[in-house]
Design goal:
4Fe-4S binding protein, electron transport, 458 residues, mainly alpha, iron, 4 iron, 4 sulfur cluster binding
Length: 458
């Protein structure tokens, strides 16, 4: 067994030793989550002058979209997927019901590695169509629907496992990418594991279905601590936040879905989803389409008669999308995904071509953009935080400088990772510089997109 473990390793052991307390905490989080998710959906829409301290709906909106989601994302970068393993209500409910379920074998189609990417795209786009950040009914539909699906999957497949979290959760792919940057991880000494020295702790139940002995990195680990000190070979340890991208990312055969989610989802799609509400390009596109429809005597797309669960429809709040609104939103978001993601894909392919390397190096180089992708998501989600706090009368003069610092820092981090990946795989000096120039162009493109949203169009 591990003796004289450092404080970080002892912290991992505490998670294992206090499993009952963690279960109690999980149920408290579940109760808090369901209260804020369900009750506001059955209340009247808050008046325009409503504030957090006098209206539950506004308070729930701020907690979910102003605090919960942006800072859960941020926690992945600092602590790995600790949220998933210790606090996530969906994961807790899915695992709880799987102990009482049918225990069926997980079918191959569920284990398809593309589901997290597809689910992230669909939920992101659908959320924009029904204004999930603004209305409690929409939040209940998307978050509540996801929770019900997680419990259904847990009831059908596995015994005490989190099949939903491993294969189907809409944010599991995003969390897996961001957790690679965490400065802590559960380090496994495979040689010590194989030596199998006595005494043994009871075999842990790894809910996310990981082969603990061969585990490298944070991508799939939920950091729950159940395997801490197992066979004296597993302990919570500090590491460089760059190590999993630079070392593990170069050793493993990366799935092309990681790069697809990162380039076309976390960066391209997310930029379009956060940007369309302030984009003059969106207005120009919508006006041009409306004029063409009127000139063509096609009027029905200009009607705002869709149900609220298909397109935003709250006439009592003077907020109702027309069919044209929905079509233009889809066009803008998917257009941003294809244009920005496609440009990044081409630039990275060009970099790899210059280095005369293959697809595995492309996948490795793409991972260098994880800091930039994570920063973009945090900037977009925290825009809701800033908006809601300003409604409360706070000026937040520091918000713009903080955004600039975050964006510049993320670009610098991604470029640092990219240079090290290129140096690891590249050829002579000129080839390295040309490949690095391609990555610089990609980072500049993404940075320009966020500059437009927060400075250029403001």
């Amino acid at each position: 067994m591990i003796t004289q473990a450092p404080w970080l390793a002892r912290l991992g052991d505490l998670l294992r030793q206090h499993a009952k307390a963690i279960r109690a905490l999980q149920w408290l989080v579940v109760g808090f989550y369901l209260t804020l998710l369900v009750i506001p959906a059955f209340l009247d829409l808050p008046p325009a002058q409503a504030r957090m301290l006098d209206n539950l709906t506004v308070l729930a909106q701020f907690i979910f979209w102003g605090l919960w989601w942006p800072f859960v994302l941020l926690s992945m970068i600092f602590f790995g997927r600790l949220w998933c393993g210790v606090l996530c209500p969906e994961g807790s409910l899915s695992e709880w019901i799987s102990w009482r379920g049918l225990n069926k074998r997980t079918p191959r189609w569920v284990r398809w590695s593309g589901w997290p990417t597809i689910a992230f795209i669909l939920t992101t786009v659908y959320g924009q169509l029904i204004s999930v950040y603004d209305y409690a009914q929409a939040a209940l539909l998307i978050l509540g629907g996801s929770t019900v699906a997680a419990m259904l999957v847990g009831f059908l497949y596995g015994r005490g496992k989190r099949v939903w979290c491993r294969h189907l959760c809409p944010v599991s792919g995003v969390f897996a990418l961001l957790a690679r940057l965490a400065p802590v991880h559960y380090k496994v000494d495979e040689q010590r594991w194989l030596e199998n020295r006595e005494p043994h702790l009871p075999t842990p139940n790894c809910a996310p279905l990981i082969d603990i002995r061969r585990m490298q990195g944070n991508a799939d680990c939920h950091a729950c601590g159940r395997c801490s000190s197992q066979r004296g070979a597993v302990q919570l340890s500090a590491r460089s936040p760059n190590s999993e991208i630079l070392i593990v990312g170069g050793q493993q055969q990366s799935d092309h879905w990681d790069s697809t989610l990162l380039l076309f989802g976390m960066i391209g799609l997310a930029m379009g989803a956060f940007q369309w509400t302030v984009s003059p390009w969106f207005i120009t596109l919508k006006q041009a389409a409306a004029e063409w429809l009127v000139d063509s005597d096609i009027i029905w797309p200009l009607e705002a008669n869709a149900p609220w669960w298909l397109l935003t429809h709250y006439p009592q709040a003077n907020d109702a999308f027309t069919w044209l609104d929905g079509a233009v939103i889809l066009t803008y978001i998917f257009g941003a995904s294809l244009l920005v993601g496609g440009a990044l894909w081409l630039l990275l392919r060009a970099a790899v071509r210059v280095m005369r390397r293959g697809d595995n190096v492309f996948q490795h180089l793409a991972l260098a953009l994880v800091p930039l992708g994570g920063a973009g998501l945090f900037l977009g989600l925290s825009a809701t935080t800033v908006k809601l706090l300003r409604y409360e009368g706070l000026l937040l003069a520091w918000a713009q400088p903080a955004r600039a610092a975050l964006l510049i820092g993320a670009v610098a981090w991604s470029l640092y990772l990219a240079w090290n990946v290129i140096s690891r795989h590249g050829g002579n000096g000129m080839r390295r510089l040309l490949a690095f120039a391609c990555v610089n162009a990609g980072c500049a493109l993404v940075g320009y997109g966020w500059w437009l949203q927060f400075w250029g169009w403001s």
